[in-house]
Known about the structure:
The protein is an all-alpha fold. The protein contains nine helices and no strands. The mean pLDDT is 94.
Amino acid sequence: MSPTTRESLLLAATELLDEGGPESVTLREVGRRSGVSHNAPYKHFLDKEALLATVAARELAEYAALLESESDLSTAMRAYARRALRFPARFRLVYGPWSFDSIELGQSADAAWAALLRLVGASQGDAKLPAGPPSRLANLIRSVAHGAIDLALAGHLAKGDEPTTPEQLIDDFVAMLTAG
């Protein structure tokens, strides 16, 4: 089954994003890569920001699915970091500032957040994480993961005598929380 025009446009936009960041995504180039007229993308998306919001929503849905597929917090967060490192432009798009109000993006963000909260709550229930508000602990874990990802993307974790990966830092941090 061949993809719909909308799906083809989203795939082309994602490829362009991966190749050169949001600046390289233009509706004209998305249309060209999709094999449709340069006006066709406007029949599916209001503008570039609406297109990118849909790409970001899909990426967040991937993060949510990834988190939902795991029962172990460290394993899930390592997979989360690996995906971010594999697709850095998508990660930056998703977690960058947004001025566009997208229902789909909001729903995907809510689903990803709910998946992380479920993992944190389950770990707290199993006494693997300390008690306390799950949302606060989830934000703390997410902050450490995002900081480690950002440092790795900038090349800072590869410096020094002992290069470190975000996965190692996430494991270390979760272990410290568990021991605490």
